[in-house]
Amino acid sequence: MTSEDSTRPRFLLLGSSGQVGWELRGVLEQIGTVHAPAHAELDLTNGEALRRAVHEMQPDAVINAAAYTNVEGAERDGAVSTLINALAPGILAAAAREVGALIVHYSTDYVFDGKEERALTEQDPTGPLNVYGATKLAGECAVLDSGAKHVIVRTSWVYGARGTNFMRTILRRAREMEELRVVSDQIGTPTWSGRVAMATRHILDAFLSPIASDADRKALAGVWHVTSAGQASWYEFARAILANDPHAEEQLFKVIVPVASTDFPTVARRPKHSVLDTSRFRTRFGDILPPWQDDLRAVMKSAEPAH
What we know:
With 307 residues, the protein is an alpha/beta fold. It is built from 12 helices and 12 strands. Strand 1 (10-14), helix 2 and strand 2 form a beta-alpha-beta unit. Helix 2 (19-31) packs parallel to helix 8 and helix 5 runs parallel beside helix 6 (131-144). The longest helix is centred in the first third of the chain and has 22 residues, at 78-99. The relative contact order is 0.16.
């Protein structure tokens, strides 16, 4: 290890194969040394293994981007969802406290019930409608109650140029069927995974700064809402995706139809309106969360093939 390496922050990153985690790895490597064990190396359901990983690395920050994100699957397999989303964050946070590290944990708009037709602040009461949201909220509470230095980042409707997400699903289906039916009565904010990673860097730079005071770090702790600007229904999001498809000539679809969520019955209930108010982040770091349409246009230019 060089002297320069010894002065750079050390990050233990969990969930590096996921959408946000993959983007985070690139961002964190710009500012520090990153250890990102794969799932085969570190079982998220093994609490003792998680604690040992934190103690062995002695990181400056534990970045927990790992989650059980299959909303329907969580209804069927609540035990695993609970282990990963609810219990693991508490174990990681407790271990972070023991070694003096910061923990950054990621959560979701699904901790809300969606009954309020306005942007929700970090102080608004939660009320998850499904097992996924309930386990993610339990994970938040475990981190908050751990006594560790902590940051919780809530985001929503995450998509990216790789992996499985709504954007890539719409692009694939547009090449497979002539009619697309998309829910139009659920409202949120499409958010690029890379934007979440970049926002995280701003928080980390401030928190880990050698000139940051205890008062500064106390002000940075807690829950942050981080999404792009604006809002959309899934139908509006889908229309924007198709309009910006760089390979539109491959599309088979002829019509896209807005439908009610009741036309797509699912086991897990979804919030009807889960737009997050990002005023706290904007006030602290400036207007660096662009309209969701801007990020979508940029991301689609680099997206992997949809088929």
